[in-house]
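ESCALATION

Customer reports they have been waiting on this structure for their group meeting. Please prioritize. Original submission:
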Amino acid sequence: MNENNNFPYSNVVPIRKSDRFGVYLGEITSSGEVIEGESVGIALLKQGSKKFRLKLFVYPSHQYFIVPDEKDDTKYIVLSLEEYRNQPENIFLCLFPDKSEPQEDMIAS
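Update from on-call: job pushed to the front of the queue and completed.
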């Protein structure tokens, strides 16, 4: 273990600190000025990393990641750990497709 004279205990390793940023809905004016609106979450960035961890207030149990777009420096890509799932579709199967409905009613009675 490296000796760190600035840290009070020699047997404890300090945790890396993250920079914390507010995430806001807002608008960009024609002059390029950003007008901040409602606060919608926080973004955390560890030192030396390019990947932000994003927490949105409307989804407190989910976390997302934001990475810079490789093609455009002004854009970012939002990633999720959760797999995207479509809503299940109801599928109805007919076991006797050749029989008409009145005949099925006769069999049941």
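Sent to customer with the following note: The chain has one domain: 1-109.
Escalation resolved.
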